[in-house]
Amino acid sequence: MKFAVIVFPGSNCDVDMYHAIADELQEEVEYVWHDEENLDRFDAILLPGGFSYGDYLRSGAIARFSNVMKAVQKAADEGKPILGVCNGFQILLEAGLLPGAMRRNNSLKFICRPVSLKVENNETMFTSSYEQGEIITIPIAHGEGNYYCDEPTLKRLIENRQIVFRYYGENPNGSLSDIAGIVNEKGNVLGMMPHPERAVDVLLGSADGLKLFQSIVKYWRETHVITA
Amino acid sequence: MYKVKVYVTLRESVLDPQGTAVKGALHSLSYTEVQDVRIGKFMELVIEKSDRDIDKLVREMCEKLLANTVIEDYRYEIEEVVVQ
């Protein structure tokens, strides 16, 4: 299986993402510059965290108009797994691939620490290796992770089980309905503020993020590898 | 030539944590009359005249990029200026 890690000017979690795939998951992975127009050779697309275009205007607002985002849109339409983490999530929101928007954290502070998450839906291509309701520890690192959407949108998210991760125990940023990660209606685009790529090795505090990447590979094998 | 002033603020229905903090600071300076503070962005655009309708153009820019209408409202003022 071949992963793309999209690199924007100002991305800074791209190397962590690459490491998670290449060294921990041991799958093929390639960096892709934001100018690239074709992502057909990839099976899954990863939008890493960071501060694309310096977060000028709004987080993700400028990155969403880069060339590669047209190809990301195409991959999303084709049903390929798309994962946006942190700034990657913000870009997916700005691009309209996921509903809602991010506000500054309630505390107005940049928060960087491990948090507890609850797996709210383990029937997605990103979470099938987790138990339903499993509590996991994944670090967050953001100043704008306070998710917002209007009432009808929230109702839809709940009804369609699009809320995949919720903050558990304590809501660090004020996010609506404790939302930490959501998928689109089709279920192949996941945006989340916590960083699973920073939690792939017990030595570094937690390996709870690894199952997310393993779920993607599992999904891909089930749908693409022909068994005799 | 046009000079366009664009104001972007969080929607009334969206809590503005910066504005709330600044209101608190003004209250602690004894300006207790302050009822509400909303913090936003101010952008000044200089736009060349073309055959495209200026009002439509600015509105499009706001909708597409300058404001995120999920959480933000915008308004703008268009002023025609003479180039020296």
The beta-strand count of chain A equals: 11
CATH topology of chain A: Rossmann fold
The number of helical segments of chain B is 2
Biggest sheet strand order of chain B reads: 2-1-3
Keywords (chain A): ATP-binding, Cytoplasm, Glutamine amidotransferase, Hydrolase, Ligase, Nucleotide-binding, Purine biosynthesis
Organism (chain A): Parageobacillus caldoxylosilyticus NBRC 107762
Catalytic activity (chain A): N(2)-formyl-N(1)-(5-phospho-beta-D-ribosyl)glycinamide + L-glutamine + ATP + H2O = 2-formamido-N(1)-(5-O-phospho-beta-D-ribosyl)acetamidine + L-glutamate + ADP + phosphate + H(+); L-glutamine + H2O = L-glutamate + NH4(+)
Active site (chain A): 86, 195, 197
What labels would you give this structure?
heterodimer, A: alpha/beta, Rossmann fold, 9-stranded mixed β-sheet, 5 helices, 11 strands, B: 84 residues, Mth169, Chain: A, 3-stranded antiparallel β-sheet
